[in-house]
Amino acid sequence: MDSIIFDLDGTIWDPIDTVLTAWNSQIKENQQMEKELTRTDFEGTMGLQMDEISGKLFPFLAADVRSSLIRDCCAAEQGYIRQHGGDLFHKVEEVLSTLSHHYKLFIVSNCQDGYIEAFYEYHNLQQYFLDFENPGRTGLSKGENIKLVMERNHLLSPIYIGDTEGDLNASRYAGIPFVYARYGFGRVSEYDEVIETFNDLLKLYAT
Question: Could you read off the pLDDT of 68-93 as tens digits, one per residue?
């Protein structure tokens, strides 16, 4: 193993409360929206790409209205994250610091362009990661983005750490082992390794 590729939401942090505040600030201004979103609504979209999220959260809106609302929500979201961040899981920076001395670290997330940069800006964790990718920049699936990161960084034997079935499928598509973060937002049908806390990565990979 020469590298670790991480999912972001539900694996490194929980951004839902910040994102919820940002999105509801835009939803309040849309006359077609009868109610604000809840944390439960967001938990059901973790791991999906933005078009899938919009379809799940706003199926009653016309496609053009939905696209416009999503753009406004995402723009507000990045501003809120830059100002307020999210909830890092326990000992994230300590674990990343230790792992970065043993492996090359990367992030591949199903987020919009600018989201990972906002995460970096608030939490100042970019020093631990060599590269990142997302469909907002490439238009590719998570599995394709994992392969892209592998190819351009010449990775020979990475693993992927995530918390959803989509993360599992992306790992299988890329042909690399999947480590399930059971503390995250989703459930998976199988995995190669499992961690109950972020700190468990040190037991597996930093000895």
Answer: 888 888 889 999 999 999 999 999 99
